[in-house]
Fold this protein.
Amino acid sequence: MSNTVEGYNMEGEKVIMKVSDLYFRPSVYAVVIKDDKVLMIKFGDLGYYLIGGGIELGEDHIDALRRELLEETGFEIKVKDLIEVNTYFFGMPFNLGSSHAIKFFYICELVGNAKEQNFEEKEIQLNAKLEWIPLSEIDNIKITSADDNIKNIIKKAM
Amino acid sequence: MNKIVQGRDIDGNKIELNVEDLYFRPAVYGVLIQDNKVLMMNQKFGYCLPGGALDLGETFEESLKREIREETGYEIKIINIVEVTSEFFKFPPSSQKTFKDAHSIRMFFTCKILSEDKSNIHLEKIEEEWNIKPEWIAISELENIKIGDSTDLVSIIKKSIN
């Protein structure tokens, strides 16, 4: 295997990373679709991404998905089908180095009544906001870190 | 979060693990079914599925193709993801790989065989020690064999058939 891999940073710029600098970062995301709209998180001008985030050490990946969605949306969720897995090399923001991301995508439904949203400090700094995007607009939005495969995953979930 | 998680050792015994001692170990496994038989690896502790841990810098496709080639000599095509599990695992003492305990994130994929070349089989030292060998097991026999794995592989195999 070569000693470098090609990845992207949050801005979508190509980054060459040394394999020896990489660390595994498993993460889990939800595709929540309601009334022909998908729930996404907007990071200011950097673009949109699906809601979810990193799995913590010692945490079951489904528990991580529930925790992230509760923090970001204020809702409990019903976890449905696993639709995709992918690997991604990501130049992390906030000088967090180069991650070897393993991403899991689940179709989810929001249930019950909303509690308070609790974005993480880093998400607040990135001006994170939730937005319902009409499915017909998916091809026209900018995805953070040039991860356009997200659009295919949303379509697969439709 | 609790500082302790419930994990298992290779014999399937429950064991408490310290979260601080864990490291992420993403791993990929293939479910290959042909003529009502499933390809399994017979080893010291019982049967498991072919596959193994991802190397840093390697995509899951590269990793699964490499692992299955090295263990069985088959070239494969990945069809789809069946299941993902999170497990906390204590390695047996004979394993030299790491002294930390694993937070395993295991991905199970259905795959299809494209071709075979037994000369590509190349086992790791630990796999040789465990006398690991590929074997085709009839689906109807799955309930009668000893599974050497902390995950319910029989359910995953059945899920891949549907």
Chain B has three helices and nine strands. Chain B touches chain A at residues 1-2, 5, 19, 22-26, 54-61, 81, 83-84, 86, 88, 103, 105, 107 (CB under 8 Å). The helical segments of chain B are 60-72, 125-129, 153-161.
